[in-house]
Design a protein that fits this description.
Layout: H1 2-26, H2 36-54, E1 59-60, E2 63-64, H3 65-93
Antiparallel strand pairs: 1-2
Length: 94
Amino acid sequence: MIQSVIVIGAVLTVAIVVINLILVKASGKEKFTGYYASYVFFIAGLLFIGLASLIDKVEVLGAGLGGWGIASLFAAAIGLIIAVIVDSYQQAEA
């Protein structure tokens, strides 16, 4: 189970980093739209963890809802860190 959570977290991290980089490059200087994808994953992770405590064991692709929540929170955190770094370098160049 831990292996599936790590794989799911890695795949979600790559997806969210790509989405954030596209949104950061496409957004303007004063806009925060580049961070919205990470916020959505963060909220989804909290919902998954909350649902895991309320619902009996549910497994999706080898990981329970709590595992999906942890993977989503991990992906959101790493994606947000990378988006902030790219955005700050983009702001410094302009």
